[in-house]
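ASSEMBLY PREDICTION REQUEST
Request ID: AP-0331
Submitted by: J.K., bench scientist
Number of chains: two
Total residues: 773
Priority: normal
Notes: Please return the full assembly, not individual chains.
Input sequences:
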Amino acid sequence: MGKDNNNDRRKFIKTGIGLGMASIVGAKLTALASVDEKKETVKVLTQDGKLVEVDKKAMADPSTLPAKGDLARQGIPGRKFVMVVDLARCANARSCIEACQRGHDLLPNQEFMQVMLKKDHEGSEPYWFPKPCYHCGNPPCVKVCPVGATFKRTDGIVLVDADTCIGCKFCVSACPYSARVFNWEDRESYEENTDEYSPETSVPGQVGTVSKCDFCPDRSREGKLPYCAESCPMGAIYFGDVNEDTIFNGQETLRLKETISNRAGYQAMAHLGTDPNVIYLPPVNKSHSFERGLKDLDEDLKDWYLNQVKNEKP
Amino acid sequence: MSDNSYVLLKKYTEHLKKPSLTWYVIMGIMGLLVLVGFYALIQQIVHDHIITGMRDNVVWGAYIVNFIFLLGVSYAGAIISGAFHLGRIDWGKPLIRIIEIITFITILIGPIYILLCIGRLDRLHYLFIHARIQSPIIWDLIAVIIDLILCTFYLYLTFIKDFSLMYLNSDKLGLANWQKKLFKFLSLGYTATPQQKKRLNRALDVMAALIIPTAVVAYSLLAWLFGMNLKAGWDDSLFAPYFIVSAIFSGFAIVIILMFLVRKIYKAESILTDGHFNFIAYGMFIMALIFGYFTFSDYITRWYNTTQGNSELIYKYLSLDHYGYMTYIMLIFTSIIPILVIAIPALRSKVSYFISAILVLIGLWLFRYLIIVPVLETPYFPIVSTDPDVLEYSATWIEWALVVAGFAGAIMLYMIILKIVPVFPIADMQESHSFKLFGKYSIDKLLGQKHYSNKLSDS
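STATUS: Completed
Returned structure:
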């Protein structure tokens, strides 16, 4: 049942993007379509309301490939991405971390997505707190970058262009959420497929530059959820679009505004004035205890987590 | 030129001749330390930053500490020497050169440390071609470049009169031919005609008036580079004045250290008198009081206001399990020893000033360490990691080697510059014929003293 929903959703997103793109580059595509010999065609609606057939390949290229160079700085037109994390569902399965690390070719100690253990009151039960980059509305990292290697796009995403980054690390210390990682050592995989590098994929990485969660805009272009949202077995991570007012976790689609309003959604450390684009739903009525998330951890990490929520603070 | 000033010139140009064995030995040792640093630098370039102690939590470590420290000394030197010059403080004239050289050397070496923090040195030129004026790094870059240019220019201007004097008297002074040619070239045709004198003095006034505000602005910008971050311990409006005070404090300390050494090495007891030591020490005393007051104000507001970040930080500062030892050593070295040594008459002596000045410098280095490392180790959201290297910073030998190499390089440069110019601005001291030491002696009286003549006949 859930899987069917999933497919429907993907189809829906794909068609949506297809229609959007067609309206923008429609004229150009029809011209392209006539050049190719063997055509697998697709019907699209042009700006003036005509239904035309165009080559599927030509259709796919501009919309689904990750943007490079200056294009990567512009953002996907008409979109404004947002992530909603349901803290009541997170059980620290760590699937998001692992999927993200695989997808972004990260070392085991590099986590774009981190899962913290938090406790707001000594009487309350600790809860797991997944923390990606917040893609702030007012990003301190972007402000301090001396060379404009990190930037805010029209679709709300904050990206790092590793080709421009000089590695001064100022953004790492400026980020109040510790979201950024630095590539301290060189790796063989950094040398592979360097032509394919896009700030939207963050792959391949580059030594001596800063990197972070990129909200996977390359996957959004393909109609997929980010690695973390897709892999979460609990469906704790919703990803969506403010303009469409929908969020999706791979299983169910929710109204964004309604969800935030009904479930008291909040931004982490909103008092810092950074205006995060990641909204948390408070961990109420949890179906599981937080200890479930400690089960498969090695002892050191378990101790580290428990130390974070012990009652006596300095 | 009066006979007595000539005696002074002769005495201090002696030192420009063949260097002594000790000079070579010290240069050799310092050169070795610089080489070790150079080796460490190559290691860092080959193996990247993974071989430093820096990690995602503490992204800047000993390098940035040394950067702040050296720039502080430099800016303080600019402020003190500029004030001596503009204020027409005659007793300060013999100190101007000693201070100006250290100002120049530290602004030259300091910025190297910011480069060591940069992951991609091959892209350094991006700072110019992609510069974003919104970034505090660019503010600082502009300030440091302007300051470096002004300091170099000012230092050179203060040399011109002496170059000319030495060139004009080169035969009498028995200088080597290459020195004569060098001084002729470097004096730019200055022969102390009334018009040249007027122009050069005006240029010096302008430069002195420029480097004081530049130094204040540049160091404030550096403070804001930290102070404008959203970090407990950094987002502090006290930061800029705190930095300036700590800088001037370190300036007085370095002047005492250099005066002490120059007085010993150049046997300049008659020029650098007890009065000089007392006055600079009083300056250091006042700065110690202000610095202690600022530190107290900073700590007590953090301690009292109980926000989570501040409480955690103040706990780390004061707990002996964390940075307690460093904090207490810093406080004793910067705010207790210098105040006691200068406030209690029985403890006042050149040696005690010298020792407390060294302790002040160590304390101020630790002060910079404490405002960088513990703060970076205490982010609002801790990095999920059990790796001790990530959780707590400790500098590796690479970083220590490069820090030491910087100091060794500074000493070498200082010794080389003092083989090119006399340690005192002789022409300048001669020009203010009323060169008075605390209103007691004129220069001629000073040189006519029995004490001084005895010293001369001894040598």
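REVIEWER COMMENTS: Residues 433-444, 446-459 of chain B have pLDDT under 50 and may be disordered.
SIGN-OFF: pending second reviewer
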